[in-house]
Amino acid sequence: MEKMHLPSDFLPIFIQLGLALGFIITTMLVTHSIGPKRNSKLKDEAFECGIPAEGDARTPISVKYFLIAILFVLFDVEVIFMYPWAVNFKSLGWAGFVEMLLFMGLLLAGFYYVIRKGVLKWE
Amino acid sequence: MLPIVLLSVFGIVVLFLGFSKSKNILLPATLLFLLVTLIANFVDWNHQYLYFNDMLWGNNASMVFSGIVLLSAFFVVALTRGFEQEGEAAQPAEYYGIMLFSLVGAIMMISYENLIILFVGVEILSVSIYILTGSDKRNLRSNEAALKYFLMGAFATGIMLFGMALMYGATGSFVISDISEIIGTRAWNEQSQLLYAGLLMLLVGLLFKVSAAPFHFWTPDVYDGAPTIFTAYMSTIVKTAGFAALYRLLAGSLASLQDYWFATLATITVLTLLAGNVTAVYQTSFKRMLAYSSISHAGYLLIALTSLTAKSQSSILFYSLAYSLSTVSAFGVLILVSQQQASNNYDAFNGLAKKNPFLAFVLAVSMLSLAGIPLTAGFMGKLFVFTDAAQKGTIWLLVVAILASAIGIYYYFRVLIAAYFKEGDLATIRIAPFYKVVLIIVTTLTIVLGLFPDLVLQLV
Fold it and tell me: pLDDT tens across B229-267, in order?
């Protein structure tokens, strides 16, 4: 191993961590001690605005939502791959271009499959 | 590398073939694809290769291991009969596609050079198997099996990944030949403690996948709950790929530390042999018995791994092939019988030999091979494995193994007694011609390999 990391190299991270934690603790303590306290039934509810909460959170939800969510993640990740590729486009040359074409081809094949399967149909 | 690329492309092609009106094309197409891959697998014969930035490694042995996996996949796919019996909810194209994708993972596990590839391979294989386990969507048992397998498998993978990270911390490399080199420069008591912790966790993860005791508790429920055809699939392919991966890890990078991990693995071997064989005796369901039998065979394979002599690789290879062949035919018979009788129990086989002598014979050869009776491939496999242990000089391990196989004879013969000597009202079972051909080939191979084991052994 050529590169050694000393514990002191992590000092900035610990300072950052301390600052973040300190800010939260301080604000919580300060607001609790100097803020006025007015309790009422409405104020103690989980949500103060919008329609009143109803029923249990553990109800069956249509599988379509999950499929959409998974597809969203898929295309999100695809973009993550495309950014570094676009930045290094010139140095990667034709090989990089072909590889990205292959990747996009596979992804679009999957997308076409999803559409043909009717995953995006909501009726 | 060629089989990995081919299987990925073929998997996508099969998915799209599913959109065609006629579902009958799926089975022949998948079989053709598997055959093409099987041939392409041996293109690099007699060459050593490194692919993908030196992350994949291969030689004749890894090609033969991949060949075994592809061959068993071919047989299992041939026994699916297009999933026509599964009804409306079945998605045959998806099942075939996932099976092809899972083989990509299996081949990566067999021919990895970099631990990252091992991880990716394990994940590809496992996730595919989770889906296939739960493919009987309306069946509660199948759902339970899939969820159990998924949750426990995810934990095992997590532990394995943690082990890899620790090994990287200890050696500074994921490449197993580099790890071997770095370990070789130090004596066993000068090694970093991280290495030992990492090795242990990596072993836990991999041993979970091959269902070695004490990591075997998921096996009976998952094997029992999954559709029988996929039970056959996972008990052959995951086992072969898992042991190839374990061998590659232990022989390729950690052979110099054998004194250290020998005690651990030997203990696990004994536990696996006992847990598998003793519990199998108490089963009333044939399918569940096969699950415990798969645990006990993991134990026999572990003997070869623990001994790690020069011949270990060929013993593991031959044993996995013999085990895969007999398992495929056992499940092949079970599928037919359980469809007729709507039960997986031993009783379902009562009087099988009277009207179905062919099926009874296939079952007999397969059970004899699993029990390790001479003239079958299973006997030769056990012989090689036991020879390894004798060479290493671990006689006590050998004694446990021989006692375990003596117990094995009892429960393997129970189904044969039911089939040949008990009265039953089993009608003649109609066997599709292609199904019959597969059963004939598998049974013939089991006997031929039992008589001429050199046919496979001289390959490596």
Answer: 999 999 999 999 999 999 999 998 888 888 888 999 999
Res. B447 pLDDT band, cuts 50 70 90: very high
Mean pLDDT within B145-165: 95
The CATH number that applies at residue A96 is 1.20.58.1610
**B351-367 average pLDDT score:** 92
pLDDT digits (tens, 9 = 90+) for B284-311: 999 999 999 999 999 999 999 998 888 8
| Sequence-distant (≥ 6) Cβ neighbours of residue B66 within 8 angstroms | B3, B41, B106, B107, B110, B111
A38 falls within a domain: no
How many structural domains are present in chain A?
Answer: 1
Does residue A3 sit at the B interface (CB-CB below 8 Å)?
no
Nearest residue in chain A measured CA to CA from B169: A1
The structure's pTM equals 0.89
Cβ–Cβ contact A116 with B under 8 A: yes
Non-local (6+) Cβ contacts of B137 within 8 A are: B89, B143
pLDDT number for residue A1: 47
Among candidates B335, B373, B359, B329, which has minimal Cα distance to B424?
A: B359
Q: B172 CA to chain A: closest CA distance, Å?
A: 7
What value does the mean pLDDT take over residues A42-71?
78
Question: What is the span of the domain harbouring residue A72?
Answer: 61-123
Residue A17 belongs to a domain: no
The complex's ipTM? Answer: 0.78
Set of chain A residues whose Cβ sits within 8 Å of the Cβ of B172: 1
Q: Which two tokens stand for residue B114?
A: 């970099």
Asked if residue A52 is part of any domain, the answer here is: no
Domain segments of chain B: what residues?
Answer: 2-457
B339-348: per-residue pLDDT in tens?
888 888 898 8
* DSSP 8-class letter at A52: P
Express each pLDDT in B40-84 by its tens digit.
998 888 888 888 888 898 888 899 999 999 999 999 999 987 666
Q: Looking at the domain assignment, is residue A100 inside a domain?
A: yes
Is B12 in Cβ contact with A109 (below 8 Å)? yes
Cis ω before B214 (30° cut-off from 0): yes
**Minimal Cβ distance to A1: which of B12, B16, B172:** B172
